[in-house]
């Protein structure tokens, strides 16, 4: 009986010990599982950080490369006076500046967001963090350079506006000069009409005979009609040919007086360059 009691006590004691060990093992297993899950989570977070870091850094590098190319264009234009005066180049300059500003702002926001996100998660990788800091400084340096470049572009725009205004004034002057150079003047009238308008005078002769009609020295140009000498080939006169006389001294080889079937005369210019060496044409008609 005593032996049975001893055996029973031993079994109970052994069972208690096993349950205690089992509980300890379960606790250790749970702790290891928690540590493993934390390690997996941290590893996943680091992988995400590295992936996002790589993407962000590549985007920033691409932005900086685009900025360098656009800066090259702006630098080239700023030293090329002929390019500066072109409107399309000016628009491209402003567009490039806007694009650079946008690229810098995007890069700055991406780097800031990357640092905030993983600092909040208390996750940093020294080498990657150093790269982010360097890139952030590079972006800030570009912003300072762009401020200086923008000031130069503003000065350039001011100079370009002045040049454009000068070009407009010169073009207006050239158009006026061109119009003046290409303008011919003519008047058709009877002797009485031309004398009353002060266009012709008579001189020479004896006792009123064989006087010569010629252009007055101080005639009024406003009395004449104007014509484009580059386009004018024919001037209608409206009289019989025998009643038409040119008072102004045009070269006889530079024109023809042509009479139509209905006895209407017109002046045909066959050598405009020679004909318009005398810019004022005076045609006298006999009534």
How would you describe what is shown here?
There is one protein chain. A hairpin with a 5-residue loop joins strand 7 and strand 8. The chain is built from 6 helices and 9 strands; from the N terminus they run ααααβαβββββββαβ. The protein has 2 domains: 15-179; 184-285, no CATH class. The chain has a 4-stranded mixed β-sheet. The chain has 287 residues and is α+β, with helices and mostly antiparallel strands. The protein has helices at 2-78, 81-84, 87-120, 126-181, 191-196, 272-275; strands spanning 183-189, 200-203, 212-215, 225-228, 234-236, 244-246, 255-259, 265-269, 280-285. It starts with a helix and ends with a strand.
Task: Summarize it.
The chain is an alpha+beta fold and 287 residues long. The protein contains six helices and nine strands.
Key traits:
three-stranded antiparallel sheet; alpha+beta; rod-shaped; 287 residues; four-stranded mixed sheet
The end-to-end span amounts to 173 Å
Q: Which class best fits the helix and strand makeup?
A: alpha+beta
Number of helices: 6
Outline the biggest β-sheet: 4 strands, mixed
- The proportion of residues forming helix, as a percent range, comes to 55-70%
Query: Could you say how many structural domains there are in total?
Result: 2
Provide the residue-averaged pLDDT: 75
Query: What is Rg?
Result: 50 Å
Q: Given the C-alpha coordinates, what overall shape results?
A: rod-shaped
Order of helices and strands: HHHHEHEEEEEEEHE
Give start-end ranges of low-pLDDT stretches: none
Order of adjacent strands in the largest pleated sheet: 4-1-9-6
Instruction: Give the number of DSSP strands.
Output: 9
Strand content: 5-15%
